[in-house]
Design a protein that fits this description.
By secondary structure, the chain is α/β, with parallel strands linked by helices. The chain has ten helices and twelve strands. The chain folds into four domains: about 100 residues, no CATH class; about 45 residues; about 80 residues, 2-Layer Sandwich (Nucleotidyltransferase, domain 5); about 70 residues, no CATH class.
């Protein structure tokens, strides 16, 4: 196998001629010098149509490729400009990277995948890029591949909810597919107008195919659901059922503690002096003290309770 074929395979370079490889001592990186094959030269970076050469652009440039072990790798090539009949003067496309990108396709795809399965810290440290760069890469990959899949096709059982970000100052309305477990739609805002835009994108025919919808008790969701998919069975999602149940349990616990404390205040106070075995007991006061710090014991499953929590509930 020729050395150039090895480098093309390592860096995922298709329709590319590898001219040479060098190690940049100053930067401590591997640089692969390349050029598109004859059939891929002088094409518009946006529509990929063959176009006449305009000039040599700003000279040679580099694209960040996937690391080779612990060493960063770059693809370096000329970046001429062409004159496209539709898009005017633009940088010519290269087969290893998307238009206006500073990274190769494989690098972009890897970062976008990591952003969906790992934490912010993990993806930035592993790929050695800033979080703002991750956002730009995700937007670029989605713009290139998002139109190939219709996420709204075949929906039958959906869930609608809102989530907050930036310390609760901004909101997103999200829709998930309960059958696949995937997020299928999201948009800024938490209002009826925002949710209506989802059903506008879904269309009347596919909206009529919705059989079940889960949501919280927000009025703006209930209004739009009744308006757009009246045939769907409305369900409360499991998260909010548990949330409402624990909130109600807390309210009962607080009321019970207040009742016990009021009863303790009405009991006769014992005489001053050291308490002995014959000293009168105050059952209401003991009950009020026992209810304190019982919140987590009430939340737990019986099999998960500690001995202390068993005693407190008793």
């Amino acid at each position: 196998m020729r050395e150039t074929r090895v480098w093309r395979a390592l860096l995922g370079l298709e329709n590319t001629v590898v001219e040479g490889v060098e190690f940049d001592d100053d930067a401590g990186v591997i640089v692969v010098h390349a050029r598109p094959t004859a059939s891929r030269r002088d094409r518009c970076g946006t529509c990929r149509r063959r176009s006449p050469r305009f000039d040599h652009g700003d000279g040679r440039r580099r694209w960040r490729a996937l690391d080779l072990g612990s060493v960063q790798a770059f693809v370096e090539a000329d970046a001429p400009r062409v004159t496209c009949r539709r898009h005017g003067v633009t940088v010519a496309s290269v087969p290893w990277a998307r238009h206006d990108a500073g990274h190769t396709r494989d690098f972009d795809d890897t970062v976008a995948w990591l952003a969906t399965v790992t934490s912010k810290t993990a993806v930035t440290r592993l790929m050695r890029v800033a979080w703002r760069t991750v956002g730009s890469i995700v937007a670029r990959v989605w713009a290139d591949t998002g139109g190939a899949v219709d996420r709204l096709e075949g929906l039958a059982r959906i869930g609608i909810d809102e989530i907050s970000y930036r310390r609760g100052q901004r909101y997103l309305t999200v829709v998930v597919d309960h059958d696949s477990g995937r997020l299928v739609w999201a948009a800024p805002g938490n209002s009826a107008a925002t949710l209506r835009s989802f059903f506008d994108a879904l269309g009347e025919t596919r909206s009529a195919a919705i059989t079940h919808v889960s949501a919280d008790g927000a009025d703006w969701i209930a209004v739009v659901v009744a308006e757009r998919i009246p045939q769907a069975v409305v369900c409360a999602d499991a998260f909010h059922v548990v949330q409402w149940a624990t909130a109600a349990l807390d309210q009962v616990r607080i009321e019970a503690w207040r009742t016990a404390r009021a009863a303790a205040r009405s009991e006769p106070r014992p005489r001053r002096g050291p308490r002995t075995a014959n000293s009168p007991k105050r059952p209401a006061s003991d009950l009020a003290n026992g209810i304190k710090r019982s919140r987590y014991a009430l939340w737990k499953n019986p099999e998960d309770l500690t001995e202390r929590q068993h005693a407190k509930l008793a």
